[in-house]
Write a structure and sequence with these properties.
The protein is 33% helix and 0% strand. The chain has helices at residues 25-40, 45-52.
């Protein structure tokens, strides 16, 4: 199985004054990547919610930071 890769650009609004991504912003990146991963599999969350009353909720999130994401 190939890993899912979704590239994201880091904007000023995502960072602190030093150009490093705010800790809380990683959760937003993860959520966008999860949505794009599901879409790549043909799963559309809006359709699941409307047609089957299925929604996803994150119960737990743990992050091990390898290195900082930075502007651009």
């Amino acid at each position: 199985m190939n890993p899912f890769v979704w590239k994201v650009r880091v904007y000023w609004e995502d960072t602190d004054a030093g150009g490093v991504v705010y800790l809380s912003q990683y959760a937003n990146f993860f959520e966008r990547a999860r949505t794009e991963w599901l879409r790549s599999l043909g799963i559309h969350q809006a359709e699941l919610a409307a047609e089957q009353n299925i929604v996803f909720a994150i119960r737990h999130l743990a992050i091990d930071y390898m290195r900082a994401a930075k502007l651009d």
